[in-house]
Amino acid sequence: MTDSKTLTILQLYPNEMNIYGDRGNVLTLVRRAELHGFSPEVIYHDPGKPFPQSVDLVVGGGGQDSGQDKVQNDLLRINDDLHMLADHEIPMIMVCGMYQLFGRFFKTADGKTIKGIAIFDAETQAGPTRMIGNVILDTPFGEIIGYENHSGQTFLGKTARSFGKVKKGAGNNGKDGYEGAIYKNVYGTYLHGSLLPKNPVFADELIKQAAIQRYGKFTPAQIDDTLAEMARDVARTRPR
Length: 240
Ligand code: GLN
Description:
The protein is α/β, with parallel strands linked by helices.
């Protein structure tokens, strides 16, 4: 009998912050965790709910400014829980709107400030143009491929580390050539796509970090990623 090792994946705000296929990130983590021999369980955090006791991996997606506004107060309420998990090296992947709210704030086009929880030393200000299109990054996890759609321009502070360098696309702000942010095992990025199905190496990195925090080790299974590789090949040749 195989001992079934659980991994608890928490998706933040699935109703308000979940666009452009971001839920595919959760599905990919579940499937790959199973292939690596774990029994993943997905739980959800909605505004007003108690924050779960035990979490191995946290996922957050993009959304409209209005969705960000809706979750703002609750996110500030669970600020301490998320900071504690981050400081304990729990892996998290935050895409677009949730990436912005893991920084200090997002200032909308009409001048409203939506506060974030400042896990990243970063600030975001709505810009005059939307940055839309396919993106390729150079990251510590190799080439990451995805799709961006945001008007917010994010600027990293002095203590922040970027997720990657832009090879194609706009990235954080269309100016400095950087994309996303990293704090310990917390990753913020503008890349939808969804991101993880097209970037299995990075998906496995998140699972590995979760497994190491929970079980002290990770023994990867061999997974046939031919289809993901084909998808990456096509995505690489797509026009911006
Ligand atoms: N509202 C934010 C922006 O446009 C986030 C968009 C998103 O999550 N796709 O910058």
